[in-house]
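User: Is it possible to get a 3D structure for a protein together with its bound compound? The compound here is uridine-5'-diphosphate-xylopyranose. I've pasted both below.
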Amino acid sequence: MRISVIGCGYLGAVHAACMAKLGHDVVGIDVDEMKIAELSAARAPFYEPGLEELLMEVQKTGRLKFTTDMGAVAESEIHFICVGTPQKKGENAADMTYVDAAVTAMLPHLQPHSVVVGKSTVPVGTAGRLSDLVAQQQSSAHLVWNPEFLREGHAVADTLQPDRFVYGVFDGSEDHPAVALLDAVYSKPISAGTPRLVTDLPTAELVKVAANSFLATKISFINAMAELCEAAGADVTRLADAIGMDDRIGRKFLNAGIGFGGGCLPKDIRAFMARAGELGADQALTFLREVDAINMRRRSRVVELTRELCDGSLLGRRITVLGAAFKPESDDVRDSPALSIAAQLQLQGAVVTVTDPKALANAARRFPELHYERQLDAAISGADALLLLTEWNEYRELDPHDVGSVMVSQRILDGRNVLDPEKWRAAGWTFRGLGRA
Ligand code: UDX
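Assistant: Yes, that's possible. Here is the predicted structure of the complex:
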């Protein structure tokens, strides 16, 4: 099939490459010339495991091209909208500028019987509004909503073998013509067993924000338990293991620590609350305010624990932060709790060095005032305290004896509860975890 993908960021670039891998002829379109130049040379403009290899593989087949020319959509029968919907400045609501601009720019090139597929995370009601615009331009064209659930760091696998497809169509009917078309696009994963659900447009839009709200709630739940464990002298990691053995609860997404960040969960729960308010259903989501508050409290808690770790004062203390990305296997620093904590420590007088295997360039753009050091040895050398804030494998595997020999004082705070406290304490370290005695 001939496919266009509009927006080549974390979502669109991966989607374009994966659609070509599934055998389709794909053109990726973006307004950012630099990004298009990189992708055209089979280089990923951001770090995502496996993406660069995939770009090289599919570009050799001639099935994947990139351009800044929106006119290229005229050659395709299906158009995926993959642009971002960040949080509006100074407001909780989603900024729809990029979605609206993409659709407006695409409409004049829309061919009869083509299908526009929304993948971006949007406030419920957007699809209905855009669907009217598409119908006014081409009465035989359709707009459907097909939310994306990929996780950064696993984006290629999540796109090629997702755990479900959701198709939102105007009438919610399996007989809608776009259903067969999307089945053809995804025929490989569907024949490999990926289930798919057909819903109406608002349900499909809500599935995405509901899923992210649930995940955020799960993380904040365990972080609230961490607060209690700290007060009661209990261990949240053992508590999570024990409650997670109940199939109805499950152990995934019950890792207590410095909380969630990234380009999705924080802004999605806020945009969801804002939209619920517009719909007169704000009471239904007041719990998300608490989810957000618990999450943000984790960051302040780490600053306080670091102060305690440094004998009550941060002034002049040399603190090394391990990890800047919002999660491992990503260079994304959008709303990264690790970077936010690093910046707060620095503001309170600590001398902070941040290290990360992939995210330092993005981090330096976001917080130029922090000191960055790529080499782990150099970053750790002479530090008064270590903070493990993003659980990259290389930090999980640190040896307390090796690390201790280059530090001024052996103090560590494990913000992700991934280290073995006994091992570090036995090596002479003062060790603090989150939600652990
Ligand atoms: C999320 C959703 O998982 C994905 O389905 C959606 O499409 C986009 O948003 P992503 O933001 O890539 O994906 O990362 P995710 O793995 O969900 O992690 C989000 C944040 O939660 C990270 O900061 C992570 O460190 C944190 N987290 C995750 C925890 O603090 N504890 C956990 O147990 C799990």
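The first strand starts at residue 2 and ends at 6. The chain is about 45% helix and 15% strand.
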